[in-house]
Hints:
Layout: E1 7-10, H1 28-35, E2 40-43, H2 45-48, E3 60-62, H3 65-72, E4 77-79, E5 86-90, H4 96-113, E6 121-122, E7 129-133, E8 139-143, H5 146-159, E9 164-170, H6 177-184, H7 193-207, E10 211-216, H8 240-248, E11 252-254, E12 273-277, H9 284-289, E13 295-299, E14 318-320, H10 323-335
Parallel strand pairs: 1-2, 1-12, 2-3, 5-6, 5-9, 9-10, 12-13, 13-14
Antiparallel strand pairs: 4-11, 7-8
Helix pairs in contact: 4-8, 5-7
Amino acid sequence: MNQRPYTVVLIVPTGVGASIGGYAGDALPVARAIAQICDRLITHPNVLNGAQLYWNLPNAFYVEGYGLDKFAASCWGLRPVHQNRVGLILDAGIEPELRLRHIQAADATRATLGLNLTDYVITDAPLLVELQTAASGASWGTIKNPDSLLRAADVLIKKARAEAIAVVARFPEETDAIALENYRQGQGVDPVAGAEAVISHLIVRTFQIPCAHAPALSPLPIDRNLSPRSAAEELGYTFLPCVLVGLSRAPQFLTAQSAKSQPDDVWASQVDAVVVPATACGGSAILSLSQKQVQIIAVEENQTQMQVPPEQLGIKALRVNSYLEALGVLVAHQAGINPTALTPAISSLHCLS
């Protein structure tokens, strides 16, 4: 008798300074390893995006954070696709030369990778992104002209038949110099990640369509002491390629009002395990999935700026030290083996009174 597909959700929250996954696609090796031992891996752009670096994982679902929250809450399902038509939004606030660099990057993915892109749209007003830092140290941000962003997305969906949306917004250069230096040294919080999430959430919430964001920034001066975890962002003028690759096969969202279910559709009830940093268990997706029959694996080694362990929220989770240990737990779980059976000490059964 065939077992159902083994499905794992991998979450590394955005903009919280995760020691693994808080930099330039540095959780991608974790995703690649987990993808080898499960049938379906559901994760989000913060895990899979690495600027101009990316990796094709045929069994991975590239799901924007708001969409992942709705999926975990059983509000939306995921439908795999062979290919999406990806529409590109460029912020009117991007300088002409920097805009051309991004258009050329998009054209390169069409010619070199064969991606299916629509013509692009420039917003009718600068988006005016502002960056903020919360008291916890997490990054976040706002955009002053969200309506301009939504109008651009509406044009791409209605006129260009876009099935997924990539956004490139001009981000301010005047970031905290110390915070930026810490990030480039692999010790701080990504200063733009929180604002990126705000942009993609807005489009996904409004149009129920896959979306991801790439910031437009001027290249930084060379740093001879750069951390390898931050180095992917130093390769060129754009972070766009990984976003276009991810969106090209991102699953479409299904709502309760969607068409009849298809065999490959995925719903939260089919999730078997979730892997999350042990100090970042307060997100909506984890809270929702903790109410289901799901094995939650909390990785202690992946420290974050958050201080929200599973026990504090009444979440039953199996703590492990590292992602290497998490891989072992997933293998045992998929095989139907209690992980304690792999340890030298097993207690006897007790009689219930």
